[in-house]
Amino acid sequence: MDCLPKCEANYVPLTPLTFLKRAASVYADRTSVVYESARFTWGQTHERCLRLASSLRSLNVVKNDVVSILAPNVPAMYEVHFAVPMAGAVLNTINTRLNATNIATILRHSGAKVFLVDCELVPLAREALAILATAVSGSCAAPQVVVIDDIDSPTGVRLGDLEYEELVRRGDPAYVPEEVRDEWDPITLNYTSGTTSEPKGVVYSHRGAYLSTLSLILGWEMRGEPVYLWSLPMFHCNGWTFTWGIAARGGTNVCLRNPTALDMYRNIAEQRVTHMCCAPIIFNILLEAKPHERREIAAPVEVLTGGAPPPAALLQMMESLGFHVTHAYGLTEATGPALVCEWQAKWDRLPAAEKAELKARQGISILTLADVDVKHADTMRSVPRDGKTMGEIVLRGSSIMKGYYKDPEATSKAFRDGWFFTGDVGVVHPDGYMEIKDRSKDVIISGGENISSVEIESVLYRHPRVREAAVVAMAHPRWGESPCAFISVKKNSAGKTDDVKEAEIISYCRKNLPHFMVPKKVEFMADIPKNPTGKILKAQLRAVAKNFVWSENNNGPSSSSDKKTSKEVATDLSRYNPAPQEQQVLALSRL
Amino acid sequence: MDCLPKCEANYVPLTPLTFLKRAASVYADRTSVVYESARFTWGQTHERCLRLASSLRSLNVVKNDVVSILAPNVPAMYEVHFAVPMAGAVLNTINTRLNATNIATILRHSGAKVFLVDCELVPLAREALAILATAVSGSCAAPQVVVIDDIDSPTGVRLGDLEYEELVRRGDPAYVPEEVRDEWDPITLNYTSGTTSEPKGVVYSHRGAYLSTLSLILGWEMRGEPVYLWSLPMFHCNGWTFTWGIAARGGTNVCLRNPTALDMYRNIAEQRVTHMCCAPIIFNILLEAKPHERREIAAPVEVLTGGAPPPAALLQMMESLGFHVTHAYGLTEATGPALVCEWQAKWDRLPAAEKAELKARQGISILTLADVDVKHADTMRSVPRDGKTMGEIVLRGSSIMKGYYKDPEATSKAFRDGWFFTGDVGVVHPDGYMEIKDRSKDVIISGGENISSVEIESVLYRHPRVREAAVVAMAHPRWGESPCAFISVKKNSAGKTDDVKEAEIISYCRKNLPHFMVPKKVEFMADIPKNPTGKILKAQLRAVAKNFVWSENNNGPSSSSDKKTSKEVATDLSRYNPAPQEQQVLALSRL
């Protein structure tokens, strides 16, 4: 074939920034963002982003500089997803559940030049900046701080001179955005909270963000003019790409400072919400809402959720309230969902329990992934499509991250043999739908059998008195490894928890699990240890389990001092103090 | 930011071939293709494509070779859209309405190595190959011919030794497709039928085809599991990308040898068709169906149409039958639709006539176009969004063609100043929706005013006796140019056409058009001259109009011999003999 070279007309770098430009042109008068009494059109949002981008440039932000933000889902948080890359910079959204030390680490590691802070989070940011100041050497300057005052009810809280609305006001609406010359250029930097290691900075390219956005709209079949409730933090994989996706669809972003039952129901009813994404914990908040917090839901709300498969009963309750749930699986490194449990028309006729079982599977690859497979980690051979044989889930495609920022070792560990290794273990069902079984490092190998800790945990969670459960491997002289369960217990009517005994839990497991999967040891704890984002620290639990010594005599393990060991763990982790509900947030573990 | 290089896991070339691979994996048992008694699943279609690709390799087809096909919308025509690029080759689908000379020209220009021919088109192909043989020099070998016998009712017709099903049968199902290493590599080559010049070979890249496919699914909001009726030829911009799109959506392709009313209604009813694309002529076929050809349409069928805006009355009739029409604008060079008239919820409340008016606009850019604009051709300044000021429609984005094959001159003429010039003239309405007014070379400039020939033609078409109409510029001593109308007339009840007079048509136009737009001359013809694909040859009409001499005395132009000139034109064009309905196919002019 002829050599037909690329030119500016037929090879334009892919970037989500085109979605905003297009929205401003063709949906100019449609509502883009709503937040309490504040309301913008796409024309206005575009202009505000141009102004902010020009103001960032005037703060000496240049190409590839990092701009960090610590904020809930307020309008400014939405706008920076366009304004920061329009200034040529890279957006770093920081998880608001982190503590000051973590935040300081991220600010230092990313080398943030500007740090935008929501007014309510000023105390946390001040603390983080103080830690950063003591740690920062002469070579690394502290970021310029901009406070985002509440646009609906200004507080007057400041941290330095700069305020967000003032930057918008004094910006240039005729600013010409920094051109994206290479679609491989970075657009955002999102730190994952590791359970064992330092946070890692996941870098997305313009190309990856663009393609993921299209994929998610397609995979979820989101139609035009959606009204999208921001119940999912935008800092999670940039709102699983819907920060950009709502612009692509000309929809309305319903911003929300806190996902409380009252505020969610109120916005759903008043703004006529059509779509929302969330962690399963949000289901509980919606279901446990008090009567005065509830509002009737006029038209079905599409809900995309990730992480722990929602149990059938929960799904049915949600659907009866007017929510239509779709289940997805993803991870920060894959720019959010990589698998979506795409519904098939023929399943409509099945009984509810079977439907829920199908819906609980993680599903099939989104369109922009070139390939998904489940492979034996050693041989790299694909597992059979039998719904039983476990292997590691591996991904390939242009929606996978560029890599970990300043971490070549972790990057090269994640990318091997042309694949991205998720570290998640799953099976492929005969129909091609995948189901996640565990984190690869959490799989228990007992007598050559792979046991999914998640499977045992889900059985434990169904016990009426179990509040939290985590299962890890402990050494076993005969089987190599055996499951060891850590649980916390709900109080009984007398406010007690000590009436639940190990033997009862084991006997319950015997009834509900194959024998080889039954925990050989059950350890009770007041709270299961978690990191600040709510992920259970299984590495810590494994350390505890190491102390358990198997004794053939009493047909079970004994510990020199179980209570003490648990307590030690609790003490080690006392600096973390997540709210109880945050245990569930990790349900979004890989999202 | 860190330098994070691309790797095989996170930078995978974009190609529609992934859609088939994915469909075979996750929609393996769903019906992919239906044609009369033949029915395949996605697993089978994938295997058939692998087999065919391996057989093409065994015919010495190598990377970037051209494989041509001359076939209606039968299953083989669908399969080659994957199998040919899986062999590393470039697919050239030839318009079945062309004559033998045109086909020979395309075979020679493309250098086709293999030529697949549907059994019904063997006589035409034989003729084309004979012309090619006389023209081919020693340096250019004739293509290997493969006959595609009808898979439902084999005819036994052959042209040489090779038959399609035999190639599929003897192919290797374990064939590993040629890897797409560069998404800029060509995937298809589609010749446009020029009205004035030689056909031009439009080359699509894998990237362009991939992105256009996603765009069209998004723009049309096509949900999962569509049942798609092939009423649009796949050789038109590769079925406006739905050849690849139906695989992406895991849908069913309902193949169709001829879009007759009987076969369309039968398939819509029996296969429960949900979607179809077509030229407006198909509306007439559906509306004019005889009672025995009709079937009731149980659920609404989404119809995407392009070209001439469907009049309100036609739209209403279509909708009353159960078709829901969306209007688009595109061109071969833009891989099909570039603008889609995206419907807005608020328009639902408008009266039918206003709705039709809104729906008749060509609309807003598809998502993967980086930019669309309407510009003054001289100054390159954007026209105001007033719905009145005309300018040339220009496009930028990765869904625009690579260029014209072996035609650097035409390529560099089409790409200028970072834009692709469509050659179409339009306006932008205040809401950002665009409306096409004319081909730029067909605009009539009268006293400094731009007059759209299409606008005059659409008024003429509404006259009850006008069968066909075409308007071109003729010289005018005062205004520079004036409109000149050519029309053919429907017979009256006595079977006559000569009762319609020029004065009546001009007086009718005076009532329905601004004075300056009224044709100064009306010329009657038995048939308006067209090229083999049904495009009206305005260049020929302009040549005729040149002979008209304006005479101030009779306040109208006179011609030395109008009839003679028309006849001459008719004689010149006698080798073209399009069916009358093909005049309307050009309504898809730019698609």
Question: Can you describe this structure?
Answer:
By secondary structure, chain A is α/β, with parallel strands linked by helices. Chain A has 2 domains: 406 residues, ANL, N-terminal domain (Rossmann fold); 146 residues, ANL, C-terminal domain (GMP Synthetase, Chain A, domain 3, 2-Layer Sandwich), CATH 3.30.300.30. In chain A, strand 23 and strand 24 form a beta hairpin. The longest helix of chain A has 17 residues. Chain A is globular.
Largest interface, and how many residues on either side?
A-B, 64 and 64 residues
CATH architecture call of the largest domain in chain A:
3-Layer(aba) Sandwich
> Can you list the strand order of the major beta sheet of chain A?
2-1-11-10-12-13-14-15-16
CATH topology of the largest domain in chain A: Rossmann fold
- The helix tally of chain A amounts to 19
For CATH, the homologous superfamily of the largest domain in chain A is named as ANL, N-terminal domain
**Low-confidence runs of chain A:** 552-556, 558-591
Structural class assignment of chain A: alpha/beta
Note the quaternary state here: homodimer
Largest sheet of chain A: 9 strands, mixed
Global shape of chain A: globular
- Compute the number of structural domains of chain A: 2
Rg for CA atoms of chain A: 24 Å
Keywords:
homodimer; 591 residues; alpha/beta; Rossmann fold; 5-stranded parallel beta sheet
